[in-house]
Amino acid sequence: MTETPSTCPYCGIGCGVLIEHDGQRITGVRGDPDHPANAGRLCTKGATLHLTAADSVQRQTRLLAPMQRTRRGNAPHTVDWDSALDNAAERLAAIHQRDGADAIGVYVSGQLLTEDYYVFNKLVKGLLGTNHIDTNSRLCMSSAVAGYKATLGADAPPCSYEDFAHADTVFITGSNLAWAHPILMRRLEDARRARPQQKWIVADPRRTETAALADLHLALKPGSDVALYHGLLHLLLAQGLTDAAYIAAHTTGFEALAERVRAFPPAETARLTGLAEADLRTAARWFGESPATLSLYCQGLNQSASGTDKNAALINLHLATGQIGRPGAGPFSLTGQPNAMGGREVGGLANLLSAHRDLANPAHRAEVARLWGVPSVPTTPGRTAMEMFQAAADGAVKALWIVCTNPAQSLPDQAMVRRALERAEFVIVQEAFATTATCAYADLLLPATTWGEKNGTVTNSERRISRVRPAVPPAGQARHDWAIATDLARRLAARIAPERIALFPYTTPESIWNEHRDSTRGRDLDITGLSYARLEAQGPQQWPCPEGAAAGRSRLYADGVFPTADGRARFADVAPSPLAEAPDAEYPFSLLTGRLRDQWHGMSRTGLLGRLYGHEGLPAIDLAPADLARLGLQDGDLVRVASRRGAIVLPARASEGLPPGQAFLPMHWGQEVLSGQDAQGQPLTGVNALTTPAFCPTSKQPELKHAAVAIAPVQLP
Ligand code: SF4
């Protein structure tokens, strides 16, 4: 048996794994003791990866050959790769010619490797001539990106995991770290053992497993995050705990913000957030008096119609107290997906370009055009995830190419998304698994490789680039995502722009990565000092790591200089916004969504393993015991949960962690176990039958975390 070092394909912690194999079959997996993210540890998902690669599982679930449908609704039949790719190129070229480039939308995934992402981005913006490429990372980190850019000037998390060991106060807000990022929770527990003075504040409406471990739990009302942060800043000012010297030397815009937070005295903040004044005072004191305060945050802030403001208001607290750029201090967004960061680095989103360049910046567009050797890149911003599917539902987008993601289950407002998939003239689904709900809508299915077979790089939450290495050959006829994109790009170019065939010369992932690396020269994420060979020799590295650097940088902004025009960070003077859909008389419950400990996203991989159902075996909606009693329900009784967009039926369960008026439903469950329908009676499944399509106007990230719902007992015949 051989062990091949690689990276876990689940969450953005980016744990290193050692894959045990015989060259043909994967037989085991263990944590890589030399990987700086996890030092040998794995959570239950990572530790069972090898079981998802077992032959019996692969045979039942993998897409093993290209398949196409002659008519929607028919069973797909197998075709050879040449026919499949020629068919795809022909159909896309015809739509391109008839309806224009903007009639094509490409929707990719934070599960893709950086090299895959790079080719797709170039294909869409450099060949097709549109910016209509977006990614399911839009559902994950786009508010964090917008929050960083609005305040610190660049999409660059300033901290590292090693900061856990230096923090005296840890403010965990909008994150159930214990379940969503289990290995980081282990690391934080180690830090508190070694540093007994370390205090944890957890802000979360629910008493989660993370909140239960906190020294102070702030069970704020859903959506009241900005009011909480403004209220804390009010107290920091009142108690003389802001850092006037830091504010004067390194920031702009404090006066306007200070004026705004005058309106958030403790009594008012308590009213807005539902928190006790004493708890607000304690939190402000711990935040401001601590020698080093670290904030950890995730989807509770990001997946909101005011996600950018929530991120920016939290970062305000760090700037006002000078809690940034020092060991153990700073705002630290935790990445959901394994390579949401890498996708941003190559610009694989509707509003970005390569190496953190902005599409809206003419100089950046010109630089990318020069790097790619094309006359220009298109100027009109692309459609973001929800906009792309809405445009398809409205008939403006005619072709959808969906790669390594399952929008029929994972996007909000499932009824609209499924209408889009039905209405689109041509749908390509490029996938490893044949079992996702989206596969049913595909005219053409292209089999892709997956973990254990893929080769390339990913970047984790702390800006660390790790290699993903193959242990076994691709299953069946599956091909690598970058290779499928390269081949299809060349066939497409032959039909619409033959002079651009040369844009896609790639024969290895390393050749793509080198082109990406060279595009970062002089940028905030400069990695010109790195190579595959250096990653091989020295292991995973953090960016920036410019040419000549002895190592990547673990902490940003230590010098107080920020990547803005004047070198100063900017305070964000933002007002609290209401929830996109507040509870009312008709839909009186606040439905919150989140992760389970042992499942990942839509369960296309974790859902294959019986042992991962040991923690949570069946879907249920959690309700406060008082609400259960008020509705005349016993634990396990069926309820109908309805929003303005659809309804599902499932068991209810009492949870002491929820106050009356709130409900919680995990995001993972889909077609296998939940049934429901939309307003027209069409079948729907899962939590996204209920969620709202509302999104943040800046980041365009949907408010997946909250919807107003009605809950009623189901009368069995
Ligand atoms: Fe994988 Fe995340 Fe678990 Fe680490 S914590 S093993 S990256 S799922």
Automatic annotation (TrEMBL):
Protein name: Molybdopterin-dependent oxidoreductase
UniProt keyword Repeat present: no
Similarity comment: family membership: Belongs to the prokaryotic molybdopterin-containing oxidoreductase family. NasA/NapA/NarB subfamily.
Location of this fragment in the whole protein: 1 to 717 of 960
Requisite cofactors: [4Fe-4S] cluster; Mo-bis(molybdopterin guanine dinucleotide)
Positions of the 4Fe-4S Mo/W bis-MGD-type domain: 1-57
UniProt keyword list: 4Fe-4S, Iron, Iron-sulfur, Metal-binding, Molybdenum, Nitrate assimilation, Oxidoreductase
